[in-house]
Design goal:
8-stranded mixed sheet; binds flavin-adenine dinucleotide; alpha+beta; Flavocytochrome C3, Chain A, domain 1
Length: 344
């Protein structure tokens, strides 16, 4: 075929998302403060979140800033029924699971489940291992595990009131039970010896010492009977249960993890799960993409995660959980208005 093709678009709005599906890019931009990037990561975003359009826009003259701002979860499990490559699911945990590092030591206070994602990531990267463990039992998993992702919550996405009621009534919700049965990161056993054997079989080295873990669990369980406990996780569980919503559906009644009536015991290997890109294409307040010199790149706008949710990194380094869509909508509106104005 001969001839030339001339593109006469007057405005291009880049809304291609971040880089979380491209682990090479995540590693290349890994924040220095977090040390060496993890050897193993799983993807909490679809494969199309590959960052290619960021490179293309940069090659066209755009300025990419705050590349080391990123948000990864620390409670990732491999999806037993994946939709995309390396598909990981984030557990949204209640407060009761015991969180252990790869060697079986409890994470330091206040790194309890659901407390401080980036603080926990920082700690994990200082341990020299990529994975951690939740140790819990069936009573805890039934009430405290929610799985992130639309396909994991068919009752909510299908707007099924009956489905939501059934979930609340079930000993263990269906999607969570499926992971207990099929998930490669799950070990479910009646006794601690077998649990530790299963945990050690999942890692390259057998890092968990059964006697040490038994002591850790016994020490934690002893504090359940102590109203003035200095175990701050037990205090946190009691605090969470003061809020009626958490008491009903999120935080289980404090009990001994080794209580056989609450079993079987469960260990979950947790992986680093890539999710959000907090830096991106630098833009002005009209979502116009800027060059390195600070001038607008003619006809190019960016919004959403591609623009670090606005400006090239409006959230800063730490961000506030769950507030990302707001930046997508806001920067999208600004981009749409500016583009419409500029082409009219
Ligand atoms: C499981 C999950 C749960 C989340 N929960 C929350 C939450 O509770 N609160 C919150 O605020 N945020 C949450 N987020 C984050 C939020 O969903 C994303 O940050 C947001 O969707 C980003 O929107 P976006 O439009 O910028 O990019 P995306 O939603 O990634 O959309 C980018 C689009 O561009 C397309 N695309 C990419 N490259 C090209 C190309 N070259 N040509 C054509 N099309 C292309 C892609 O196919 C895709 O449709 C969650 C994300 C996930 C994955």
């Amino acid at each position: 075929m001969t001839g030339t093709f001339e593109l006469r678009a007057q405005a291009v709005i880049v809304t291609s998302g971040g880089i979380g599906g491209n682990h090479d890019l995540v590693r290349a931009n890994w924040p220095e403060r977090l040390g060496t990037p993890p050897q193993k990561m799983i993807s909490g975003v679809p494969a199309h979140v590959d960052g290619k359009m960021l490179g293309i826009t940069e090659a066209a003259g755009a300025h990419l800033i705050n590349r080391d701002r990123m948000w990864h979860y620390t409670e990732g499990i491999e999806n037993w029924n994946p939709i995309w490559e390396r598909h990981g699911i984030r557990i949204l945990p209640g407060p009761s699971s015991l969180w252990l590092d790869a060697r079986g030591d409890r994470l330091p206070v206040p790194l309890f489940p659901g407390f401080d994602t980036l603080g926990t990531l920082h700690h994990i990267m200082s341990t020299g291992y990529d994975h951690t463990w939740f140790v819990l039992n069936q009573r805890v998993i039934g009430k405290e595990f929610t799985l992130s992702g639309s396909e994991q919550n068919p009752d909510l996405t299908g707007k099924s009131v009956r489905g939501v009621i059934d979930r609340a009534r079930a000993d263990v919700p269906g999607p969570v039970k499926a992971f207990m049965d099929h998930g490669v990161d799950f070990v479910v056993e009646k006794d601690l010896d077998a649990l530790v054997r299963g945990m050690n079989a999942l890692t390259k080295e057998p890092l968990i010492d059964e006697a040490a873990l038994r002591r850790t669990l016994a020490a934690r369980d002893r504090e359940i009977a102590n109203p003035f406990t200095k175990d701050l996780q037990v205090t946190a569980i009691r605090g969470a249960r003061k809020f009626l919503g958490d008491r009903l559906i999120r935080a289980v009644t404090p009990h001994r993890l080794l209580d056989p009536k609450a079993g079987p015991l469960i260990a979950v290997r947790l992986n680093i799960l890539t999710r959000k890109t907090l830096g991106g294409l630098e833009t002005d307040l009209s979502s116009r993409v800027l060059t390195e010199g600070g001038e607008p790149l003619p006809g190019v706008y960016a919004a959403g995660e591609a623009a670090g949710f606005g400006g090239g990194g409006v959230h800063g380094y730490r961000s506030l959980e769950g507030t990302f869509l707001g930046g997508c909508l806001f920067s999208g509106r600004a981009a749409g208005r500016a583009a419409a104005r500029d082409v009219s």
